Amino acid sequence: MRYIVFDIETQNIFDDVARRDPTLLSISVASAYDSETDTYHTVAIDELSTLWPVFEKADALVGYNSNYFDIPLLNKYYPGDLTSIPSIDILDSIKNSFGKRIRLDDVASATLGKKKSGHGLQAVEWWKKGEVEKIKKYCQMDVQVTKEIFEYAKKNGHVKYKEGLKVREIAIDTSTWEDKNDSALTFALPF
């Protein structure tokens, strides 16, 4: 299965728009990891279209909160329909198993023993200051963490989180993750 792990950062936050609708936000930076080539592609908004051929080669798009946030927002810019590509949202899998949402940073800390390098609000501030390279670095690190969590869950069938001082496991049904390999199509490029 060829999977693309991805993340986006935005130029603004929900408080800046009328409702809590991701499609009302604007992308600043996007990053994607291609499992087949073992490469990362991180771009600013003006280069976003260079990622479409990478996404279109995917058997599955892998993200964290991506079905609710990233895919709908990316779809605003994409000339096709990214929802046509199968997706694996790790946060959805956690919520389905555990009954609640857990921040990526908390899962990364307990599962991988590392924390993210920052948070999304910092990325918005960096955008306002024109510090695009900082956003690119941060976004790519989020993709690296998401990729490692995805690979850990595939191998072990669970992720971890801390409850007080104890580290607990959340079982993840990854069997459906492997059934995503029949969809590699071109969604926006001419045939």
Walkthrough of the structure:
The protein is an alpha/beta fold and 191 residues long. It has a single domain (3-179), classed as Nucleotidyltransferase, domain 5. Helix content is 35%, strand content 21%. It has six helices and seven strands; from the N terminus they run E-E-E-H-E-H-E-H-H-H-H-E-E. The strands form two sheets. The protein has a five-stranded mixed beta sheet with strand order 3-2-1-4-5. A two-stranded antiparallel ribbon has the order 6-7. Strand 6 (158-163) and strand 7 form a beta hairpin. Helix 4 crosses helix 6 and helix 5 runs antiparallel to helix 6 (132-156).
How far apart are the first and last residues' alpha carbons, in Å?
A: 22 Å
CATH superfamily: Ribonuclease H-like superfamily/Ribonuclease H
What is the averaged pLDDT score?
91
Supply the number of helical segments: 6
Strand content: 15-25%
Strand order of the largest sheet: 3-2-1-4-5
Number of individual domains: 1
Q: Determine the CATH topology.
A: Nucleotidyltransferase, domain 5
What is the approximate shape? globular
* CATH arch. level architecture: 2-Layer Sandwich
Any key phrases for this structure?
two-stranded antiparallel ribbon; Nucleotidyltransferase, domain 5; alpha/beta; 191 residues; five-stranded mixed β-sheet
Summarize the structure in short.
With 191 residues, the protein is an alpha/beta fold. It has helices spanning 52-56, 66-75, 90-98, 104-112, 120-128, 132-156; strands spanning 3-10, 27-34, 39-44, 60-63, 87-89, 158-163, 166-171.
